[in-house]
Each structure stands twice: as structure tokens, then as C-alpha cells.
Amino acid sequence: MAAISARNLSFKYAGAESPSMENVSISIEKGEFVILTGPSGCGKTTLCRCLNGLIPNFYSGELTGDLEVDGVNVSGKTTAELASHVGFVFQNPENQLFSLSVERDVGFGLENMGVPREEAIERIQWAMRATGIFNLREKAPYELSGGQQQRAAIAGILAMRPSILVLDEPTSFLDPKSAEEIIAVIAKLSHDIRLTTLLVEHRLDIVSRYANRVIVMDRGKVELNGTPSEVYNDRARLIGVGLPRVTMLFHLLRTAGFDVANPINVEQASDDLRRLLTK
Q1: Nearest to 161 by CA among 74, 103, 86, 102
Q2: What is the pLDDT of residue 112?
Q3: What is the pTM of this model?
Q4: CA pair distance 193, 8, nearest whole angstrom
Q5: Do residues 85 and 166 touch, judged by C-beta distance below 8 A?
Q6: In this structure, how many other beta carbons lie within 10 angstroms of the beta carbon of residue 80?
Q7: Which phi and psi angles does 47 have, rounded to 5°?
Q8: CA distance readout (Å), 147 to 178, 180, 182, 185, 220
């Protein structure tokens, strides 16, 4: 059973002249780590908002097509009902942190779900340890760095034990080092607990090494869908996808007549160059 299954999914915001998303059909299997990318305004965030019921419950408009998450048809379901299936991490972590301590923030969702106290404490501690912020549990969110805030936001979602984790550009407010650390944490969790992960991201240099698959959207439609090596090509570049720099370098080498592959990270590129030099 697919963790996420969309068939001919379309949405037009109220008052908009054209759909923000049109006839999107995708299937994401349980445990996959998938990057969703594309130029600004291509429909990525709109698709994510459908997964946890923000559309149409909080963003009015015309929604058509079929969508299932974790085996549940989202039609008629509230965001609260979908919260145990889909965890949503917003672009700016400050939008999800508002308590006087990290520990209380991480437990906020569990309080709303009515989880028994002993179980809630266990989940909170597990989530904070998993994201590496247990030592920050008594600090106020405003005392944290951007990377620490993002970890706290992720911990709050993980504590609710969703089957699917959706992250909308979680590295946008972070420096490169913090961004790499956050993505590594997400990838490890995805692997360790078989968490289905859909990551909206433009910084493909950082995230591509962890992805099973990349979906590229443009003008509300899915244009490319495959492994990173398959998707990172001229068509993706013309759409406006910022390909990893090492991939661009090897594209230039192929253009110059060298028989090289299509690496997505420096380690793959190094191996390919060694093979090329030993021929």
C-alpha cells in the first residue's frame, strides 16, 4: 500500500484565475525519502497542504481528484484527524514554537491528542533525543539558534508518531552547516523508523544524497519523477531546477566528449573520475 497516492489532483484557490495544481498523479511508497522541487509558484506547497487537510479546510478553493495518505482518503477529513498520519513541518520554525520551554512545545500536540501522561513523557523524551535537543529541553524557543529551533519543530511533530513527514523547505532560514545537520537528522530518522518523508527543497546539493526519488513540478504539474540521477538532466535545468554543482560539472564533461555518469554528490563524482583516469 502506498503511503501517499494522488490521482488527478487539482486545486484552484478562491479568486485565482488558474489552478495552482492540475491533474497531479503520484505514488510514494512507505519508507521512501522523496524530494519535491521546482521553481517558485509551481504548486509544491499546494500539494503539501492537501496532504494534511490544510486544503480545503483552511485554504478555500476548488479541490478535485482523489488523495489517500496512509491508506486514509482525505476527503471530508479535518487537519486534526489527519495529524496522526501526516506531520507537517513549516518553512519557518518560529511558526510552530510558542511555549515557554522546548519540552512543553514538543508535548503540545500530544496534549491536544489526549495522550496519557506517562506515554506522553516517553514520546517527548524520545523525540528530543532523536533530534539531538534533549539538553535544550528547559530552554525557551527564542533562546535557540535557527537550527535548534528547526530540530524542536521536528521533534514536536515526531512525538505525535505520524507515518508520513512533510517538510516545506526546512533549510530556508539556515546556514549551510545547520542545513546539512538538519537534513542528516531527518534522513537518519527516515531510515531508522521507516518514516515516509516528503521534503520540499531547493538546496539539492545538500539533500540529494539521501533521496530515493525526486519529483519536479512546474506550473502546477508533475514534469519529472525518478531517481536523482534520472531527473537531474537538461529538462530539469530548463524548468528552473538548481541542479547540484557536481552534476552540472559532469554535464559539461559529457558535453566535451568524456564518457562519465551523472553523479549527484562529490563521493559519486570522485569514484567516476577515478574510473575515467584509470581507463
Answers
A1: 86
A2: 86
A3: 0.91
A4: 30
A5: no
A6: 12
A7: -60, -45
A8: 5, 10, 7, 11, 31
Rounded Cα distance between 104 and 49, Å, is: 26
Give 6: exposed, middle or buried? Use CB within 10 Å, 0-12, 13-18, 19+: buried
- Which are the contacts of 119, defined by CB distance < 8 A and separation ≥ 6? none
Q: What is the average pLDDT score of the chain?
A: 91
pLDDT band at 3 (very low <50, low <70, confident <90, very high): very high
Tens digits of per-residue pLDDT, 67-99? Answer: 999 999 999 899 988 988 999 998 888 888 989
Q: Across-strand partners of 67?
A: 6
Sign of CA dihedral 260, 265, 267, 268: negative
Q: What b/e readout covers 176-186, taking b as 16+ CB neighbours within 10 angstroms?
A: eebbbbbbebb
- Pairing outcome for strands 72-73 and 61-69: antiparallel
Q: Contact, 155 vs 103, CB < 8 A?
A: no
Does the pLDDT value for residue 41 go beyond 80? yes
- Partners of 6 in beta bridges: 26, 67
Task: Give yes or no for a contact between 3 and 32, defined as CB atoms under 8 angstroms apart.
Answer: yes
Here the cell at position 47 is: 500539494
**Residue 224 C-alpha from the chain's centroid:** 17
Three-class secondary structure of residue 227 per DSSP:
coil
CB count in 10 Å sphere of residue 87? 24
Amino acid letter at 247?
T
Look up residue 243 and give its amino acid.
L
Using alpha carbons, select from 119, 116, 153, 117 the residue that is nearest to residue 133. Answer: 153
Radius of gyration of the chain (CA): 20
**Comparing 272 with 40, which gets the higher pLDDT?**
40
Tally of residues, the chain: 279
- Do residues 179 and 12 touch, judged by C-beta distance below 8 A? no
